[in-house]
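Sample intake — DNA (cytosine-5-)-methyltransferase
Collected from: Kocuria atrinae
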Amino acid sequence: MSSERSPELYPLAISERPSFEAFVDPLTVVDLFAGCGGLSLGVAQAAQDLGRGFDVRLAVEFNESPAAVYRANFPHARALMVEDITTLFSSDLDQPLSKAEKEMRNSVGKLDVLVGGPPCQGHSNLNNHTRRDDPKNALYAIMARAAQVFSPGVIVVENVPAVLNDRHKGTNTVSVVRERLTTLGYDVSDRVVSLYELGVPQKRKRHILLATFSGQSTPHEILDHLATSTAKTVDLEWAIGDLVEVAGDGLFDRAPTPSADNVKRMQYLLRKGEYNLPNHFRPRCHQGNHSYNSMYGRLAWNQPAQTITSGFGSIGQGRYMHPDLPRALTPHEAARIQGFPDYFDFAMATTRSALATMIGNAVPPQLARQLLLEVLNPAPAD
């Protein structure tokens, strides 16, 4: 693979951040559950594509580490609150707006776009015991409350597909939000989309709820068009092919040190030209009949990656072995696979654990970018 870090060959290699905020007619944005800023970056990229500016009026994130990364990448954000979001918004959708909510509304002003990716631990398929009725699921409804507070023109809520099965106090979480947004005058639609088909180099699927005020672009039509869009699909080589020979100095470009057993497993795959590890090379608990072929598996240059999670630094967590080298992915490579260009600065993450968690939990920017382009620059009718 090429080691030439050229933005022409590798678009994510661009190291100079665009001046998103410098353009006229800015899109005003509120980003809740902001993480390190994947959704905000996607909105900024869409605004740039449309020749518009970008103005973060408010971002809210509970954890300081991703908030620090957000702050570094969006230094012009008017307000970044490192807070428990339930202290800012009421979880009772029937209550009148509080004094604090009215003050937030006045501070934010006219809002174009509200985005948010509520935490998904409560309804992850890895959490079988509690996922269907977990207090975390109530956080999803905060997006409807925020819509009451700010009256944005467009609302995008991102989550894992399993959110469709979630309940809080016996009521389907997504249905509650859809119904409330409808009563507020929005057209609402939701769908599970493949991010690979939107130009993200991994097999990631996400549930999207999209709402616009009645009379604007219809969310159902937008999601229909999105599903058949002509976005270029890209593979692993497109994302990280230029990073093969990047020095491993520093936290961002250094892969974790594998165990001796895992080195042997990776060397076997490279020597044999295989991508799936035979059972007899696996740990005893992974032998026998199983459906875990991706575990200890090797990535292929001409395919999309497996969904990036916080476990991307361990081949025992999934198909995270580099295609050509006996190691797992670096944080830099994982960030690229999530769609973050090199100008996005992760330096404020000072531990490997914090870096892995925020990259694994991030929303690929391309999702918000493609959605907002569809909403704000819809395809002409046939």
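Post-analysis note: The mean pLDDT is 90.
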